[in-house]
Structure formats: structure tokens, C-alpha cells
Specification:
alpha+beta, 4 helices
Length: about 130
């Protein structure tokens, strides 16, 4: 019995981590909840992000982008819509976070873990045709 008890903590941890993965925002109704909880209407986030991308220096890297739906989050300057953009999705992708409040991008930066951009669902995004 001794040799089986050593694997029980590892098994319990694996089950716990699997359960955490099931509650990711990509599998639940986070977008619909954000719409009902936010005091602001859904902004024209695709156009706002496209306009913000115009100020990026490396314009040649702005191809094959992907964008997430906005999510209402707590932000340092107050609550805001968070939109994630995935750069270079075919290779070494990275995420950028755009925070929108009152139909303005109030901050953009490389995404950090608390933004949960890696767990988001993305769709193709062409800034040139964004509305």
C-alpha cells in the first residue's frame, strides 16, 4: 500500500488543475456576462484597436493578426474593456492588451498573466478593414 500513496498527491493535483482549466473564459459565457455587467455599451473596439495600431513603429509586423472579443475588467485607472490582440499566431505568438474606456484606448501594452489573453478565443483581424 505504501507505493500507491506516493502518487495520490500528484493525482489530486492533476485533477485540481484539470478542473481549473474547465472554467477558462473561452469555455464559459464571459462575453455575455461582461455585456450585462458593464456600465458602458460595447465600444467599436475593432476600429479603436486598428487606430491604436497605427502608432506602432513596426508596421510590417501587423500582418496575420487575431483579436479577441472585449471583456469588462478592473483596471488601474478604473474599469475598462480589455481586448487582446495576438501577433504572429503561426510562429512565436505574443499578446498585446488594449484597455478601452468611453470609446478611447486608454492604455495598450504587452499582455501579462492577469490579462488572461492566452485563454481567450481569437478571430482573424485586419486593421485596414476594421469598423
Amino acid at each position: 500500500m505504501r507505493k500507491y500513496s506516493a502518487g495520490l498527491p500528484a493525482l489530486a493535483l492533476a485533477v485540481l488543475l484539470a478542473a481549473c482549466g474547465l472554467s477558462s473564459p473561452s469555455l464559459d459565457d464571459a462575453f455575455e456576462k461582461a455585456l450585462s455587467l458593464s456600465p458602458e455599451p460595447l465600444p467599436p473596439y475593432r476600429k479603436l484597436v486598428a487606430d491604436a495600431l497605427k502608432s506602432f513603429k513596426a508596421q510590417e509586423e501587423l500582418t496575420k493578426l487575431e483579436i479577441s472579443d472585449p471583456r469588462w475588467v478592473e483596471h488601474l485607472g478604473g474599469p475598462a474593456w480589455l481586448v487582446c490582440v495576438k501577433f504572429n499566431p503561426a510562429a512565436n505568438s505574443y499578446h498585446y492588451a488594449f484597455f478601452i474606456r468611453q470609446e478611447k484606448v486608454v492604455e495598450n501594452r504587452f499582455a501579462v498573466g492577469t490579462d488572461r489573453c492566452a485563454q481567450r478565443t481569437f478571430a482573424p483581424f485586419d486593421p485596414a478593414t476594421a469598423k
